[in-house]
Design goal:
With 275 residues, the protein is α+β, with helices and mostly antiparallel strands. It folds into 2 domains: 142 residues, Fructose-1,6-Bisphosphatase, subunit A, domain 1 (Fructose-1,6-Bisphosphatase, Chain A, domain 1, 2-Layer Sandwich), CATH 3.30.540; 111 residues, D-Maltodextrin-Binding Protein, domain 2 (3-Layer(aba) Sandwich). Helix content is 33%, strand content 25%. The strands form 3 sheets. An 8-stranded mixed sheet has the order 4-3-5-6-7-8-9-10, sandwiched between helices. It is globular, with a radius of gyration of 18 Å. The protein binds D-MYO-inositol-1-phosphate and calcium ion (2 copies). One calcium ion (CA) binds next to strand 5 and helix 6.
Length: 275
């Protein structure tokens, strides 16, 4: 008798994702120690053989356990035609530029959608040995300990984070306008180079808010569940429910969300509002 896909218990899914994340994280550290080859997708968008090896490792690990599931991975795209309601969404190395420069802020990000809803997120930072995990309605955890968003209530007291897409040189929608505005309103502003870790850090209360204009599903899938389960809020720039397929993301501790949206929308001629 076949089991309905709906019936897979969340601890089985979570353990599988943690196993895949551990293996892929070890691969990244191996490449970091022994050396890697770099290719350019565009002048500033890199990919290394570590990205490819970690991605294949995650897919193989999960597929061995869930052969009928779908897979969407950054380097390979949609790798199957599975009609399964389960879709694993994988960024094998989020923070490739950091990795390529031996700057130790990068991670493996593994998200899972069921019928199009993000229900699980596992993000592993192998350089700090930090495992961020969440399943829908199960809370968010860092190395097994519950995490919560911060209690900061004003932008003035907030540490914010953002990022820039690889087409920054080619588009007016480059986030520099928002960056300049938040720099004058926040207590501090960071650019870490790993959107998935930025989301985890909002969930853990290390950052109070995060926004970015041109993200991909694999940057957001896992981290969105972790923020949600840590008590945070996620939306697009207008405050609508986040879609991981729509590029714009605002994640916050909830308290400063409205203030962030106000800053992001305060210029009516902004390309964000017009597009
Ligand atoms: C990038 C990082 C970065 C963000 C970029 C992403 P990658 O992902 O998450 O922080 O600003 O938009 O593309 O290429 O390192 O997987
Ligand atoms: Ca990424
Ligand atoms: Ca990546």
């Amino acid at each position: 008798m076949t089991t309905s896909p709906e019936q897979i218990p969340s601890d089985i899914l979570l353990n599988a994702a943690i196993g895949a994340g551990k293996k892929a994280g070890a691969i990244l550290l191996d490449y970091a120690r022994s050396g890697f080859r770099i290719e350019h997708k565009n002048p500033i968008n890199l990919v290394t053989d570590a990205d490819h090896a970690a991605e294949q490792c995650v897919i193989d690990h999960l597929r061995a356990q869930f052969p009928t599931h779908g897979f969407l991975a950054e380097e390979q795209g949609r790798v199957d035609h599975s009609p399964s309601p389960y879709l694993w969404i994988i960024d094998p190395l989020d923070g490739t530029t950091n990795f390529a420069h031996s700057y130790p802020t990068y991670c493996v990000s593994i998200g899972l959608q069921l019928h199009g809803r993000c229900i699980l997120g596992v993000i592993f930072d192998p350089t700090r040995d930090e495992f961020f995990t969440a399943v829908e309605n199960g809370g968010a955890h860092l190395n097994g300990h519950p995490i919560r968003v911060s209690n900061t209530t004003t932008l003035n007291d907030s540490l914010l984070v953002t990022g820039f897409a690889y087409d920054i040189r080619d588009t007016p929608r480059n986030n520099l306008d928002h960056f300049a505005k938040f720099a004058l309103k926040a207590q501090g502003l960071r650019r870490t180079g790993s959107a998935a870790l930025d989301l985890c850090y909002v969930a853990a209360g290390r950052f109070d808010g995060f926004w970015e204009v041109r993200l991909s599903p694999w940057d957001m899938a896992a981290g969105s569940v972790i923020v949600q389960e840590a008590g945070g809020r996620l939306s697009d720039f207008r405050g609508n429910t986040l879609s991981i397929y729509e590029q714009e993301l605002v994640a916050s501790n909830n308290h400063i969300h409205h203030a962030m949206l106000t800053v992001l929308n305060d210029n009516p001629s902004s390309p964000t509002l017009d597009s």
